[in-house]
Structures are given as C-alpha cells and as structure tokens.
Design goal:
The complex is a heterodimer.
Chain A (H helix, E strand, L loop, with lengths): L1 H25 L6 H11 L10 H19 L16 H21 L4 H12 L1 H19 L4 H6 L6 H4 L1 H14 L11 H4 L9 H26 L10 H22 L5 H29 L2
Helix pairs in contact in A: 1-11, 1-12, 2-11, 3-4, 3-11, 4-5, 4-6, 6-9, 6-13, 9-11, 11-12
Chain B lengths: L11 H12 L2 E5 L2 H6 L10 E2 L8 E5 L4 H13 L5 E5 L12 E3 L3 H18 L17 E4 L7 E2 L13 E4 L2 H4 L8 H6 L15 H6 L11 H10 L12 H6 L9 H5 L13 E6 L10 E8 L2 E9 L14 H11 L4 H16 L5 H29 L3 H14 L4 H20 L3 H5 L13 H5 L12 H5 L12 H22 L15 E9 L2 E10 L2 E8 L1 H6 L2 H5 L4 H10 L10
Parallel strand pairs in B: 1-2, 1-3, 3-4, 4-5
Antiparallel strand pairs in B: 6-7, 6-8, 9-10, 10-11, 12-13, 13-14
Helix pairs in contact in B: 1-4, 11-12, 12-13, 13-14, 13-19, 14-15, 15-19
Classes of the chains: A mainly alpha, B alpha/beta.
Chain lengths: 298, 596
C-alpha cells in the first residue's frame, strides 16, 4: 500500500518536474505537454544502433530509473509514509545513487556512438568530484542525528533545520545533487551544444521515454533527499506533514531547475577544480564544525 | 509521405498516440538556427521544439535552397530519424538525395506556421500508415571488404582465401577513412591494423566529409554508415530483431586477432597523446548542422579522450557567387553577392555597389551615404545579436539564446524610431550579461589569439588591432566613429567587443538619422576598374572588379571568414572539447562567405 502510494507520488512528482523544467526553458506553463510528449515517444520507433553493446544499451535507461526509485524507498514523506525505514538509510541513498553513474556510463558505451561515449566518460570523470560532496555532507547530517535512519534525521531537526545548523553542508550537497542529476549548468554529460545530447543522443522511442522518466524521478528523489537531510522533512507549523513535504520538495526542485536558466554551462575543468580544490576541503571543514557543534551544543 | 512507425490498423489507442505525436512535433533544422533567425523564422514560436540529435526529431525542416553537399548531409540526418518522420521544406530548392517533401511551404514565418499546421494533420492521419517506404541514398551504402582473421594486412574487395595462410577471408565493413585520403597521417596506421570500433560510427549531424568526398570516386560507393542498416532492419518491423547484425561483444572486445592480449601489443600502434599515453583517437564530426556552431561549417575534431588532438574545418555551403567566365549584368552581380551571405546580405550588396561606383567613377551623395551607414549598422546589430544567440546556445545559456534571438527578429526591419525604442533592451541585455556568473570564467583565456595580419573585424579588434574599414571612411568619421578595441584576444574580449559594437552601432544609427535601402547605382555603359572595402559584421571584405561596357567581367572577393577559418586548428589543438568548440564559436565564422 505504502509502496503503491509512494510510486504514485513519484509519478506525480516526475510530471511536475517535467512541467517546471519546460517552464524554465520556454517560460510558458504547458500542463499537458509532458504527458503528450511521453505518449508521442511511445509511438515512435525505438532505433537500435548498429554494433551496439546490447546489454549496456538496453539496461542503462532502466537502471537509471531503478536507481532513482531505490533511493526513494528510504525517504520519509510523513512520519509513517516510508517504504522501508532502513537502519542504514542515509548510506543506502548513497549506494543507490551510485548506480546513476553506472547507468550513464553504460548509456555512453552501449550505443557505440562518439557523442554518447564522450558524455559517459565525462560523467565518470566527475565521479569523485561530486560523489565526495554527497557523502561528506551526509556524514555531517548523520553526526547530528546520531543515526543513519532517515526518520531520525528528520526528527533531529525539530529545533533547527540543518540548512541553518550546517549551511555549508547544504550548499555543497545541493550543488553536488545538481551535478549528479546532470542538471544545467552541470549538464556536461548531455550537453546539447557540445555532444548533441551526449548519453541521450542515440536513444529514441520507448527507451528514450524510460531514460527521461528515470531522470525526472532522479531529480524529484534528489529534491526529496535534500528536504529530508536539510529542510526538516515533513516538519512545519499549521499544515499537515504531507503538505510540508510536498511544498518543500517542489520548492527545492524549482530552485534546482532554475539555476540552468540563468547560468551558462560550467567548464568541465572548472567543475573538477571547484569540487576537488574547494568543495572537498570545505566538506571536511563542515564535518569538523558540525562535530564541534554537536559536542558543545548537544 | 509520412512513414509509419509500425504497420497495422489505426485502432483507438493508436489514434490517440498519433494525435499526441501531431501535437509534440520535434524538429531538426537545416541548415540551422542562425540562418533561420536571419531569415526571420521563429521555429519555437511556431510550435515545434528543436532538438539537437536527429534521433529525437520527428520533422526535418529544410529552410531555403542549400548546396548539394549540405543536402547529402541532410539525407544522413533524415536516415537517422526515428519513424514516423516527415520532411518540411520551406522555399524552393533542390532536394535530391532527400525524398520528396511531405509538406512544402513558403520561406516566411506565416509559411512556417502554415506548414506546421499541415504537418500536424499529416501526422494525426499518417503516423501509423501501413504502406511504408524505405529511404535510400547512395551515401548511406556500406562497402564490404574481406580480410584474413590472422593477417589483418590482407584486405581485398572480393571474397577468397588468404594468400599467406589459406584461411577463408571474413567480410567486414570498410571504414570511411580507408576510402578518402585522410589528413591525419599519424594515426592512419592504427586504422589499418585494427578494425577499431569507433571509426565506423562517426555519424551524427550529417558528418560526412568522407561521404561527400568519396562520392567523387565512383568505384568506392561505400560508407561505413550505420543508419542505413537500421533503416532496413526496422523495416522488418519487429523493429529490433537484429540477430546476426549484433556482434557487439566482438567489436568491443577489440583486437581479437591477438592470441595473447599484451597491453604493449594492443597499444603499440595507437597514437600517443601529449602526455605520452597511448589512446584511441577518434575523428568526430561537428557540423554542418551542429547546434551552437555556424550552420554549414564542418568541423572535424580528432579527439584524444576529451582533448582535441587535431582538427580540420571547411565549409559545405559551396557558394559560387562571382563570375569566372561570363560577364554579369550589374544588378544580377549585386544580387548574387548579397544572396551569397544570408547572415549579412546588405554588407555585400553595399560592397558590390561601392566597387561598381568606384569603377564607373560615380560619386554618391552624403544623404545616400548616411542612409547606407544606417542600414549597414542595423545589419551589424542583427548579425551580432544572431551571433550572441548562437553563442548562448553553445554555452548552454538558454536565456541568452532566446533573448538575443527575439531582439534580432525585432531589429531585422526596424526603422530609426523603432531602433531607438529598442535601445533600453540592448542596454539591459548587456547589463544582464555583465552580471551573469560563470560567464567570465567560461570565456576568459579561451581561444586566445595573438596579433596577426589574418585577423579581421571584431576578432582583430579583440587583440587590439585597429583594422576597421570604417576608420578611413569619411562618412563614418564625420559621424564621430572611433574603432573599439580590447587587448586580451580571448573569447571574452571578442564577446565584449561585439557588445560594445552593439552600443556603437546604435549611436551611429542615431547620428546618421536615416536608414535607407540603397538602390544599386546606375553605371550606364561604363568601363574601368574599381575596388571597395566594406566593414561587414565579421570584418572588412574587399572586392576588386572590372567593368566593360556596363558589365562586370572580373571580380575578386576577399572575405573575413576565409581568413578566420585557418585559425580553427591552432585554437582547438590540445583544448578540451568544450573549450575548443567555444573558441571556434567565438570567431563568428560565416561558412557562407568562405571562399575555398
């Protein structure tokens, strides 16, 4: 029951992400567009390139979707609305999201196309750059909650949300989450004007539909993760918990998508520089500062 | 005819899907967005979403007449599109080898809107049409050659047995690189010795330098092109039943001809990167319809990972504007020259007029001269805005693409009052760009040039060379013209120079006070020689011509983009892919005026 409800909510979430994304691009609200676009994709031929790596090509879109769905299973939307409250929830999210990389690498290699392949390798090149910036801030979040249970992480923020308790961690996590979801300005792996769609370039028809759905679910999952870790989850005055979750998740999604509208794409070298030379030291500092805060001000 | 995706009857569900497809048209634009904007087309406003990959497009839109080389490239794009697909042709022009158009319409915004409305009806009705036709074109054919599994150096066109060991030769596809003379000598050998997977799939975006060149040799009609096969496979319409085609694992395993896979053996023939590591190098075509690059330009980058190891650039527009053997009427000469360059037609029209007036010894009045200045500066504004839109697209900066393109459309035929009314919009655009984070770090230090005689226009002024043809023009100096210059010579400086020139051109139009579309001068039956320099939006163009009894008999044209094209190699070498493309983009090349 809970599983079905969460899946339904994710579907609605993915739809809303698509609507917001279309708005950031065109400036118009087209409420029916994601649905008609999806149906249209289902009707189109799904081309299989020649000399492909069949397994990689077929598995990649599905794996992307699954990895985003897996991460969503440990995210609480209300105190009771969670598929499984794993004792290692925060770690599990990381583990699930690693498969995003695997999926993109497979999507890059599989179709045997130059643009896709470069896109896939680019994403691999960013691996540690952003992956460390997801793990390290989460460490600090878990330190405060003294637990990896995601529900515990939410309740630990009852007095003060983590966005205020550890703002540095929030900024790092938010940026890394955008990079993980390859949202502009970090869309190096699908860059239209450099790789003509990159890892997406060779997919069409139903496979493309699954790939795009996977990405939408990934965005909504990452937004929900941000809310659980930093924005106090379902907590808030007056409104019921589910409403707070929904409002916060949509706000974070909009923020993630808006950045691409006002910024040019980042240079790959700059992204790596930023993550390695600035991001990782700052993440360490964040852990240190939060450690002090936990000791001094339990 | 719209070619259906699947055979079968039009059931209720399929009707629904067909309707959805009719609503959600995705377009691939030929020759490109820059030309469409210059022609006053706003495709997205007409309701078609433009996509970067042919795989994602349902409509191939061909705007205007294009050269045979571009048509060949467009045919490759068409072959890659997933069905149901349609061909929309705006304006008249030859299409071969493309199939006949599904919808034809005139080359204008109303024509575009009308054409799209017809397309929607065609899609709703024909998306699942059972009578499918195949698309075939000579450049899609694959040549099969035969090679010995033990002796890769044995390659022949006919099946047979190996002269060295007697084994039966195995078929494989010839790579396009074997067909034409490939410029990158350094890694030719690895193409020969290993049937390396990546040679065969440089397919996107019409790629086909190879295709085009090899076309001239009738005996090799043969290209390693993957999409042809897909077309046929998809025809049997389970669509994905590939069976024997699918030898992916073998290909990826590479180098299967070595019994013992030693790393040294495997990599010994590979080219070395600058860091000394042996890597697979792949030639990847960018263009002639690549989003963010000038349309018609074919840039082939040899990629060593994400780094550019070498490049070649050429234009596929095949413009032949000038008389070589026959004399031309003055009016048709002017028309030819201005039609040559869709991105700056007035500048070339002006150039032709001025050269003829000089040859015939005709003086023009100050009023006419000022009118020309106004028109020329307006064209500079639209051209720079068009470049900004393209540059915005290249940087993945959607806001800039849309904003600059919208302003460009407004400026196209604006009169003096309308232009002055648009001044605040230009100011706010410049201000916004100045405040945009990441823009500076994206461009600073990229594509740095040093002072060089080959540089023209804004590219030259960004390195501090003042070779503006307007500086020596008395009409301009009377209007208070002073050339703008920057000195860092990188992509950022070129952006800044063009932004400053937007302001400057507005001021010049204000000072000239008039925009007049000049009539070609009546040169009567004059005989003589003359020349002219005009500062086009891309730099000074030079035309020298001779008249004989009122006819243009010889003409030599020198254009800025011809000079700038030679810079692409040094600008891209050892740069990362993104930086290399940005550097080429910042030159504002126009393939239409390049003379090869």
């Amino acid at each position: 029951m809970t599983t079905a409800l969460i899946l339904l909510l994710l579907a609605v979430g993915a739809y809303l992400v698509a609507v917001i994304e279309a708005w950031t691009v065109s400036g118009r609200w087209q409420l029916a567009a994601p649905i008609t676009a999806g149906i249209a994709l289902l009707g189109r031929e799904s081309i299989v390139p020649r000399k492909l790596d069949r397994v990689f090509f077929e598995v990649a879109p599905v794996l992307l979707l699954i990895s985003a769905l897996l991460a969503a299973t440990v995210l609480p939307l209300t105190p009771g609305l969670i598929i499984t409250d794993l004792a290692t929830g925060a770690l599990f999210i990381n583990a699930a999201l690693v498969y995003v990389l695997v999926a993109l690498l497979m999507a890059g290699w599989g179709p045997n196309g130059a643009y896709a392949m470069i896109g896939g390798w680019r994403f691999l090149g960013q691996l540690i750059a952003y992956a460390m910036l997801i793990v390290m801030p989460v460490t600090a979040v878990a330190m405060r909650a003294e637990s990896l249970l995601t529900t515990q992480i939410v309740t630990s923020q009852a007095d003060l949300w983590n966005i205020l308790y550890q703002p540095l961690g929030f900024v790092l996590f938010f940026v890394a989450a955008m990079a993980l979801a390859f949202l502009p300005p970090f869309d190096l792996t699908t860059a239209t004007s450099e790789l003509a769609g990159g890892v997406e370039a060779e997919y069409s028809g139903v496979r493309l539909a699954v790939f795009r759905l996977g990405r939408l679910v990934l965005v909504i999952t990452l937004a929900a993760t941000t809310v659980v870790f930093y924005l106090g989850g379902w907590q808030g005055p007056w409104l019921p918990p589910w409403a707070w979750s929904a409002i916060k998740i949509l706000a974070v999604t909009a923020l993630m998508l808006l950045a691409g509208r006002v910024l040019p794409r980042i240079r790959e070298a700059d992204l790596l520089n930023l993550c390695w030379k600035l991001g990782i030291p700052l993440a360490l500092l964040n852990i240190f500062v939060v450690g002090l805060q936990v000791l001094v001000w339990p | 005819m719209i070619v259906g995706a699947r055979q079968g009857k039009l059931s209720g569900l399929r009707q629904l899907v067909a309707k959805a497809m009719a609503r959600e048209l995705t377009g691939f634009l030929v020759p490109g967005l820059d030309i469409a904007h210059a022609q006053g087309l706003d495709v997205e406003a007409a309701g078609v979403r433009l996509v970067a990959s042919p795989r994602h497009a349902s409509v191939l839109m061909v705007a205007g007449d294009i050269s045979p080389a571009l048509r060949n490239a467009a045919a490759i794009i068409y072959a890659q599109m997933a069905r149901p697909r349609a061909l929309l042709v705006l304006g008249a022009g030859g299409l071969s080898p493309l199939p006949s158009a599904d919808v034809t319409s005139e080359l204008s915004q109303p024509g575009l809107i009308d054409g799209i409305a017809q397309l929607r009806i065609a899609f709703a009705e024909g998306a699942f049409r059972p009578e499918v036709t195949d698309f075939d074109a000579p450049m899609l054919h694959v040549r099969v050659e035969y090679t010995c599994p033990m002796h890769p150096e044995v390659v022949q066109d006919e099946p047979g047995s190996c002269p060295k060991c007697g084994m039966t030769l195995e078929p494989r596809e010839a790579s396009a690189n074997d067909v034409d003379s490939h410029p990158h000598e350094t890694h030719d050998h690895h193409h020969e010795s290993h049937d390396h997977q990546h040679e065969v799939h440089n397919h996107d975006h019409g790629s086909h330098s190879h295709h085009h060149e090899a076309h001239d040799h009738d005996d090799h009609e043969s290209h390693s092109h993957q999409h042809e096969a897909e077309d046929h496979q998809a025809m049997d319409h389970s669509g994905m039943n590939h069976g024997d085609m699918d030898h992916g694992s073998m290909d990826h395993g590479d180098h299967g001809d070595h019994a013992f896979m030693s790393m040294i053996d495997v990599t010994k023939d590979l080219p070395r990167s600058s860091d000394g590591l042996p890597m697979d190098w792949i030639d990847v075509p960018f263009g002639p319809f690549f989003p963010g690059l000038p349309s018609g330009l074919l840039l082939t980058l040899t990629l060593d990972g994400d780094t550019v190891a070498g490049s070649s650039a050429r234009t596929l527009t095949e413009n032949v504007a000038l008389p070589h053997h026959s004399a031309l009427e003055p009016l048709s000469f002017v028309a030819r020259l201005s039609n040559m360059e869709p991105l700056a037609p007035l500048a070339y029209r002006f150039l032709a007029n001025q050269a003829m007036e000089n040859a015939a010894g005709i003086e023009i009045t100050t009023v006419t001269a000022r009118g020309r200045v106004g028109a020329l500066e307006r064209e500079r504004i639209t051209s720079h805005l068009g470049w900004l839109a393209l540059f915005g697209q290249q940087m993945g900066f959607g806001w800039l693409l849309r904003r600059a393109a919208a302003l460009q459309l407004k400026f196209r035929h604006a009169n003096e009052q309308a232009i002055m009314a648009l001044k605040p919009d230009i100011e706010s655009l410049i201000k916004r760009l100045r405040r945009t984070p990441l823009l500076k770090s994206r461009n600073a230090g990229i594509g740095r040039l040093v002072q060089d005689n080959a540089l023209r226009g804004p590219v030259a002024r960004a390195v501090g060379i003042d070779n503006d043809a307007r500086s020596t023009d008395p009409v301009y100096t009377a209007l208070g013209f002073k050339a703008i210059s920057r000195d860092s010579g990188d992509s950022l400086a070129r952006l800044q120079v063009r932004l400053d020139e937007l302001r400057q051109s507005l001021a010049l139009i204000d000072a000239a006070g008039t925009i007049e579309l000049f009539e070609p001068a009546n040169i009567g039956l004059a005989t003589g020689a003359g020349e002219a320099f005009v500062e086009t939006p891309r730099g000074a163009a030079h035309l020298r011509l001779t008249l004989e009894k009122g006819l243009v008999v010889t003409a030599q044209l020198e254009t800025p983009s011809t000079h700038h094209l030679t810079l692409t190699d040094s600008l891209t070498k050892q740069q990362s892919l993104g930086d290399a493309l940005l550097a080429v983009g910042s030159l504002d090349l126009s393939p239409w005026e390049i003379r090869q």
